[in-house]
Amino acid sequence: MAPKVPRVSFSNGLSVPIIGLGTWLAAPGEVTTAVKEAISCGYRHIDCARLYGNEPEVGAGIKAKLQDGTIKREDLFVTTKLWLTDAKKEYVVPALKGQLKSLGLTYVDLYLVHWPVNLRHGDEYFPKKADGSTDFGTDYDLVGVWRGMEEAVNEGLAKSIGLSNYNKRQVETILKNAKVKPVTNQVECHPYLSQKKLINFCKSNGLTITAYSPLGSPSRPEQESTDPVLLQDPVVLELAKKYNKNAGQILIRYQIENCNIVIPKSVKPSRIKSNFDVFDFKFSSEDLKKLEDLNQNYRLIYFNIKDHPEYPFNEEY
């Protein structure tokens, strides 16, 4: 029997299962099976995005589990994200309607602004200028995009809305101007990048944290041979041995004990199951501190849009 998964409450009174299935970098053809497997073993939270190119596959997996009676739609929490080419007020609702069609759903539980930047509107994910540089299109308006997100809530297309990869200043800008408050900030978070200052700021202002790349994103496209490998860290391996768990389970449990929503990605049935098997142990305070002490403020996911004026990682947090 699947464990009862704790839920994290949002400021708007809704809540989300603390663990979800991440789908970034999942290869085409594998996602439908992964979603079905995850739902079968107890996951009730699926995270996807237009950029990942897998919304139709996610939708097919959900549809199969709805049809076989495993779940009802209201049992499932589905998150997707606004892509940067639609990051303008008038494009948000049409973009989400298109994504809902791909997913085969009438609403999502959570819609996020994927990054606090924009790219030229069009069908290309990463449009270029004639000289080969990234085409950011027209001036970016943080608040204007949020107005479009609020319209998505008002039209019943999204139950909650939130942010992803926003820094403190950008979150503050949204909070000062929001009519519908963001419920979460989805950011890279793991023991090498603990994000304590940003997390404390967000939580003190009513935003939850959703941790992406909690295992250190070993399959990320941009990496150096000198990058530390979190899953092979001696402290992580020592704790895995002590608690009779694998390294991934230690890193997922680290997020849960910090009350962060966590979305590990896998398409392997055995790994999907083991990533979910994290509710039968708890760290001692000493062991949790060992993981906290691994922090190096080491960011693994940079995203190559550093020339954009709103690129979020040029500030301390």
What would CATH call the architecture? Alpha-Beta Barrel
The CATH superfamily is known as NADP-dependent oxidoreductase domain
- Helical content band: 25-40%
Assembly level: single chain
Q: For the CA atoms, what is the radius of gyration? A: 19 Å
Mean pLDDT: 92
Q: Total strand count, please? A: 10
The CATH topology turns out to be TIM Barrel
Structural features:
317 residues, alpha/beta, TIM Barrel, eight-stranded parallel sheet, two-stranded antiparallel sheet, 10 helices, 10 strands, 13% strand, globular, oxidoreductase, NADP, 1,5-anhydro-D-fructose reductase, Aldo/ket_reductase_CS
How would you describe the overall organization of this protein?
InterPro entries: AKR (IPR020471), Aldo/ket_reductase_CS (IPR018170), NAD(P)_OxRdtase_dom_sf (IPR036812), NADP_OxRdtase_dom (IPR023210). The record marks 81 as: Lowers pKa of active site Tyr. Belongs to the aldo/keto reductase family. It comes from Armadillidium nasatum. This protein is of the alpha/beta class and 317 residues long. The protein has a single domain (14-223, 257-268, 295-314), classed as TIM Barrel (Alpha-Beta Barrel). It has 10 helices and 10 strands. The strands form 2 sheets. The protein has an 8-stranded parallel sheet. The chain is globular and about 55 Å long.
